[in-house]
Fold each of these.
Amino acid sequence: MDKILSKDEMDALLTNIAGNAGQDGSSGDRNVALYDFHYPNMITHNQKRLIQAIHEVMCRSMGVYFSSQLSFIVEVSLITIDEIRFSEFMSSIAPPGCIYELKIENQNTSIIMDFSPQMCILLVERLFGGNGDFVSNPRNISAIEQQVMKRIVGDLAEVISEAWEPVNDYTFTFNRFESNPEFAQIFPVDEPVVTVAIEVKINSNSMLVNICYPLSWISPNVSSVDAQQRVLAGDSPVNEAESAAIRHQIMQTPITLRAVLGESKISIGEFLELKEDDVIKLETQLEDMISVYINQAKFYSASIGKKRRNYACQIKSIHRQTKDAST
């Protein structure tokens, strides 16, 4: 006959089961990632690597741009690349926001750049000559700040165009600004998108810039095998015409050549007492070789002479570093 357990025995049994389950779960460190089978990921690993490579180049260019504009050392780095629904991306933006729509010329589609209001205020304040202090409480940016940010976003649109140039010759241009996410619904809510989170560090203050691409546009571009080879494996070897053009440009580059007659060491007191018609004795003898420099590097040793009415020097030996460099 089956034994009927008491309440205390049932509680002890359930506690034992829960404890064993916890031990089994913690017995090994396992990396578990959530996966929604209703909305499977459409971007493969190689395609994600291509997107990452494009935006790493973009981050470097953004860092150079922000540093030159703000006279600060600005660090820009890629954080994450995610594939989500457009509704999820818009719900992550809390008003007031700084949402910019960039149109892709001849593509009948757009992308979204989302800045934090604190970052926009800091950029505008610094460009107007202020300290560029971080504002903790976000607010709507004014009409003047919107005009300044319009120019900045236009410059960043050129940076994005250059980053995508190895894939295709796309031109991104400023289209419009929105502060309320509800009025920036440029895609259907269930449209799959690829979001790129970029971290911008200015004066130890970390801020985010989010870029949202429609999957219907980005997927065909990163699926190209040629694009993956150009970006991930590097460009194709330079052909003979390009090599000749590069060689011609190098040959036309001007350099500075200096023949140093000699050197001498004097004290500061002697330097302060120098006057017109004073004679400075050099360490070089008349029969000694002189040094010939190209820019700041010593390349040759030469003897002093004269050609027609000008002083001249005749190359007698090549500096050892030149021989090593030529090999």
Amino acid sequence: MTTANALFPSTGLWTREQVILALYWYLQIPFGQIHNRNKRLIEWAAIIGRNVNALSYKMVNLSSLDPVITRSGRSGLKNRSNLDEAIWNEYKGKFEQLTRDAESLLALRGKTPRDQLRLQPDYQDSIESDSENQDSEAVNWPVLLEPTRSVEFEGESVERVVKQRLKQQFFRSMVISNFDGKCCISGLALPSLLVASHIVGWADAPSERLNPHNGLALSALYDKAFDQHLLTLNESLEIMLSPILLKALSKTPYDCGLLGVEGRVIATPRRFKMDAELMQRHRLIFLKKISDNRLI
């Protein structure tokens, strides 16, 4: 029988289990945060039985398979293994399956659901990162992963709140990372004030719950306006404000940061292109709400 320790060797060839967890974490952090001073990477490396340099190199190996990285002029490391490529292809677009498998492997390492929730990144470390790493992330990447229609995105509700939050946090990490840890409207880079907003909500599109193409990084006020369909994006990703909201703002004595954003183009996502069909669904509800209000 294979022991848990045999699945996570500290030297020699990487195992399937170690590469799965490396991929799980790779998708949740910006490329510029992959370095041996990242406190989260140090903690993750210990879990899989490798040192932080080995995990950093493995993540950069995985980046050589990432079209977003390679087509932006970055090549990653050239010594990726056949296993790296097989794992990348196996989980491509299958975020729900990746989450389930990673949770099982972390449990095998003695990590409870609460431990796993704590281990997921929330960009506190990125605020404290040194300047050269921030600069390395500032490149504008024009190539994005296209949306994939698959039931594998579906995140079924579970009895345990912590396990549900694990999935929500995985979605959050991918979405916030996709916008470089900043609100895509205002540029605010304070993680505690950012929300990973679903374009089409959790209840309305179960198969898109964990789909990062169905997410925007928004600060709390913009998230609420977006969720209420008082703010949306046109086909050019320019911000549209509802007349309902504009009327309320005209009676507001102070500037709350909404009037000035109308017509502005949101920040470009780094890895996952927004799903145009889902955004259209959001926009149609926005327009219907305006129409219904005029009939009142």
Amino acid sequence: MPHTRPAMPRRAALATFAGALAVPGLSRAQAAWPDRSVRLVVPFGAGGASDTLARTCAQAFTEESGGQTLVVENRGGAGGTIAGAATAQARPDGYTLMLADLGANAIAHEMMRGLAYDPPSAFTPICHLTNLPVVVVVNPTLPVRSAAEWFAMAKARAATPLTYAHPGIGYPSQLAHELMLQLTGTRMVPVSYRSGAEVMRSVISGECDCAIPTVSSALPFIREGKARPIAVLTANRVPQLPETPPMAQTLPGFEASVWNGIVGPAGMDAALVQRINQVFVKIMHRAEVTQRVQTSQAAQVVAGTPSEFATLIRAEIARWTPLIRANNLRAE
């Protein structure tokens, strides 16, 4: 049902505007951002982890932005590149933003031919929002209880390889799986599904032996005994799975996660980027947002600077590009 949003009190609006003007180098036009609704393009459909994060941000955006609305626009498909192209081609005025991830915003040009944009140069990094931990899970009938036993079984079953489920070529879980296999000299057969939910169903049913879902999506099945966790891919244990060790205990230094952040089109003014960053940092530091993200997604809140996010994206491109090229990985 349509509803109206109460107008922001004039005194509060003036205070917000004055505070924005205090940021060094911020012009009056940039300080007024946003003076209308802002579009946040999400590269996945409704209901998933990315969509949940976007809508959590949208709920707090009005209060932190001076009364405007953050409109979530789901543009799923083609590994997130439909959303990526829509954002890359938008005006760099701060009114079209994107919930960024590894695929669409870092490595898509390595995975797809004829892409309409070049990820390393098409976007302006604004704010790294969260890291979502992932966990290696196996079907509970598989007689392994540690990463070391898992790799040993994979090596012993050369004639009948283990199978691993993933939600698509180039997704973080699939790349992490391939990198671990490369580092350990083991082989497993990949099986692609259309969603993370289908991946979990395949492991529970025994159709596939293992997978690397997010902790939040795997946790209900782990608690029911339908999937067994053997290692998290974070540097340290995660609170939701305190008995599950990090993969780094078996593969020293190994770490991987699903990250999300905010980007805009290339060419955005630096002062405007700083203004938008401040808004999203405030959103992520709100108690109710932090609690919801940590509780519903087992996520780590980052809320970093634009330069830190740019550094992360460059590091991810450098990390995954050699693996993609060596294995000739192409998005489906």
Amino acid sequence: MTPLSFLSAPLPRLGIVLLLSLLVLAILLPIGILWINMHPVSPPATTSPSDFQLSFETLKLVTIDGVPVEAWLIPGDSGAGLVVMVHGLGADKSSLLPLARVVHRTGAHALLVDLRNHGGSGPARTTFGLDEALDVTVAVEAAERRDEIDRNRIVGYGLSMGAATVVSALIRHPGLRGFFLDSPFDSLDALFGDIAEHTYHLPRAAARLSLWAYRFLTGTPPTAISPASLLAQRPVPLVVVHGRRDERIPIERGQRLFQAASGEKTFYETESDHTLSWSDAPEEYENRLEDFLRRTMR
């Protein structure tokens, strides 16, 4: 028998079926995981600003690609600036209401946006900041038409996917004053590798299939979704909050975004899991947010 003659020996039929099944699973699993995350389930909001003693107006809008978008505009002082607030994957604008009270204390107007496929907005695939930037843009444009809002004083607040979205939507806005980002990622391609390894316990190489599928479905390479690159191009004040126990978006992603940013910046490291820094220490978190808003919105 030659050293390689065993390769020509017949394998048991069951073994062949098993190998083929594992191969198909290895190909389809990363693609299936991507598809599930591009179609999250987000139930309608059960609370409204009135539950927090905040007056508000519901905005019903349509993006340039035809997606219905719903937002809440919570008025502040006449002539004050606008804080644009964006939730994370699977959440909705009602999750931002406790922090909208902080914005209201500063006198600023608050704009809480439901991203596509979330809350009161229309169905569409989730693209982790790519198409969602259109949702934020149409809401900001509607708010800016109000005479009582100073469009030269705009701050973006976002959690997780919402952080990437608000950066993409506002980074070129002439009135941008800064960002307060909670649990952000630096680039989508790097995040896919982390998710494969840490969340689903797959080899990082499996993320390549997800990257290919994302590009096939959206027509855009995941490398184009890079909040870190955008923040490197425009020096604006930045606060990043990230939890050391975050397994969904590891703290290293937030640290790399922070390192790339070119403006005045502050990094707050907490002991929390993903986007739970506020719920674990609400008073400290709210004080930091309020201080940032008062400094940047002057």
